[in-house]
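pasting for ref
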Amino acid sequence: AAVVVVLAAAAGAWLWLVSGSHAAREPAPPSSPSPSPPAYALDVTLRRVKAIPVGGTVKKQKLRAPAEAVRQTFTDLYATAFVDPARWEGGAFPGLFVHFAPAAREEARRHLDDLTLGRAAEHVSAVRPEWARLDVRFLLGPARVPVAAQASMRFAATAFAGDGTEVPVRHRGDYVLERLEGRWLVVSYRVDGGFGPEALQ
């Protein structure tokens, strides 16, 4: 299930971002073109890495490479969904779906507003990440090789509208990934988030 939570305290900012303001206003005086919005980079912090072996234990060093691969997956996924305006393409987010297993892509398309900035992308000029934290737990196969992963992602940022209005963004997701086609791909997920400092409380 995918749910977006928007608190009443942030509803005004959210509605403005999605639908724009229809109030009458005086014509603005001519101004010079606005500078290009700053480009922000997303740095995902890998906090905890655990493993569930079929039997025995596994050395942490054997989990470093798969954990880094999963971290890179979520770095690119959240950069596409939230941070990099060049990848939004008017709210279509076409680069998002390469991180989902083929069987999960149609569902991801239906939940696009839950997985990304959604319709607000048309009214946001930039998103500055505040923090991004990832916890990963691997399921190991008989050979003690990771075959699936449970990933918990928490993300906070500030969105900037065209006029400079700032709106906090919060998002969290719990994902299940499998090693498919030589990559870690999302096979299922549960996400929620929204606009406003208390969207996840």
